[in-house]
Amino acid sequence: MPGGPRTVSELLAEGGNAYSFEFFPPKTDEGERALWQTLRELEALAPTFVSVTYGAGGSERDRTVRVTERIAAETTMTPVAHLTCVGSPVSELRQVIGQYAEAGVRNLLALRGDPPSGPRGEWEAHVDGFRHADELVALVRELGDFCVGVAAFPEGHPESPDLESDAMRLAGKAAAGAEFAITQFFFEADHYFRLVERAAQHGSTIPIIPGIMPVTNVSQIHRFAELSGTPVPGELAERLQRVEGDPEAVRALGVEVATELCRELLDGGAPGLHFYTLNRSTATREIYQSLGLGTTVD
After folding, report:
1. Fewer Cβ atoms within 10 Å of its own Cβ: the N or the C terminal residue of the chain?
2. How many C-beta atoms lie closer than 10 Å to residue 148's C-beta?
3. Among 22, 69, 135, 286, which one carries the catalytic annotation?
């Protein structure tokens, strides 16, 4: 690639909107093959970047690194590698960062991560590790020429005492060297725009890319919402309940609602959209088509 791999900050600086997709590392070889089918389908949409989530320790972490390396080596897409503090001493984090650097990955998403017991569990740092994401941001910037992204929470992190404290934490990550942020999924555009305002008031002007999760399964989205502290609005919950027994109707409603949210965000000045794909391509491609961004869905 001429000039080497691009960074997210470079791509955002070129203007226009950024469109990106997030995947999780499969637990089996069969799941990995299915993921690559999805990656190839979404590659046709020419995303600004794609990211792969990270599990601390074990095969899930190893698959994350391997899939990210393959995206860098075998596709036209720009990968963003996830890295979390969970269960890792600083020495191990340094090793993983080195692996990414050797693979030519220039973009990392630095996260504290959820406790092993889940987002509502009690957080305990590794005895030789970090307590907060801003420490991980600083380490990544220290070790190489990386562009670092971080997480943001339109409705507040579950552990934050209030939204102002949450915005201050985001500003601290920006001060440590973060160059962009991606939000947790949410359902109402106002929550995103208020987050951008709060962050700016605390001195953070890094681009904040809104995270979008199309509803394709009613019980699944309620479970995700409960874990993340992002409640499903009452009106949407009622609409989903009316079609819960019809999977196609659920997916169609999910695409409709997500498309409306995307339009409102883009019209309001959001720098792009980040889709939580759940390793499937159809809903994301349908939203692209509805927004007039992508090709016809087969």
Report:
1. C
2. 28
3. 22
Note down the domain range covering 148.
8-291
Question: What pLDDT score does 1 carry?
Answer: 39
Q: What is the CATH number of the domain that holds 287?
A: 3.20.20.220
Instruction: Look at the block and give the residue holding tokens 């391997």.
Output: 66
If one counts the domains in the chain, the total is 1
| Residues 228, 114: Cα–Cα separation, whole Å | 10
30 is catalytic: no
Question: Which of 8-17, 121-130, 154-163, 237-246 has the lowest average pLDDT?
Answer: 121-130
Average pLDDT of the residues in 98-126: 80
User: What pLDDT does residue 55 have?
Assistant: 66
179 Cβ contact partners less than 8 Å away, ≥ 6 residues apart: 7, 8, 9, 147, 148, 149, 206
Closest alpha carbon to 107 in 184, 20, 46, 44: 20
